[in-house]
């Protein structure tokens, strides 16, 4: 059967991108012809990196991944998906708690824009990683080198050092 070309967007805050996100990207790029990582520009609580910095970090990591790109976007995810002519929204699942939230989000997006969301489950070892946890642990001096890509780890150290000197 001839398969239709598919473009997915993977929206999120990515402040910063973690090994859990990367796992979702690796799985997603096997499923879709094109995967656009979409960094939301809407403000988030206790953010550490600007949307531009988040895009930059991701761009460095995906250089060897054909078909994968990164952009930032404003406003509604579904509007952005429409503008990109995306077929589906890709999201990652870590736990049943994620399912509850993601279920509502996916239902809303389908009812307002008719777009489907496809979920992939992360490998068990990434199930506990979140950007919030990374920001918190790193800012308290914990070692997060096993939880984020090396470039992100370096940027985190730099940023936290800078913030410490600002105080
Ligand atoms: P948002 O603020 O939109 O939830 P995130 O950057 O926190 O943005 O997450 C983007 C997507 O990545 C979400 O679908 C989230 O469930 C998923 N995700 C985040 N961390 C992980 C992880 N460790 N394993 C699998 N999926 C994850």
Give a structural overview.
- The chain is an alpha/beta fold.
- It has helices at residues 19-31, 51-61, 77-83, 96-113, 131-139, 150-166, and strands at residues 7-12, 34-40, 68-73, 88-93, 116-121.
- Strands 3-2-1-4-5 form a 5-stranded parallel sheet, with helices on both faces.
- The relative contact order is 0.19.
- The mean pLDDT is 95.
Question: What's the short story on this structure?
Answer:
By secondary structure, this protein is an alpha/beta fold.
Please give the alpha-carbon distance between the first and last residues.
61 Å
Category from helices, strands and their pairing: alpha/beta
Mean pLDDT: 95
The largest pleated sheet is described as: 5 strands, parallel
| Share of β-strand residues | 15-25%
Give the helices and strands as they follow along the chain.
EHEHEHEHEHH
Which small compounds were modeled alongside the protein?
adenosine-5'-diphosphate
Q: Total number of β-strand segments?
A: 5
Q: Using only CA atoms, what is the Rg?
A: 16 Å
| Residue share in helix | 40-55%
> Can you list the strand order of the major beta sheet?
3-2-1-4-5
Shape: globular
Helical run tally: 6
Low-confidence segments? none
Write the layout of secondary structure elements.
Blueprint: E1 7-12, H1 19-31, E2 34-40, H2 51-61, E3 68-73, H3 77-83, E4 88-93, H4 96-113, E5 116-121, H5 131-139, H6 150-166
Parallel strand pairs: 1-2, 1-4, 2-3, 4-5
The structure holds adenosine-5'-diphosphate.
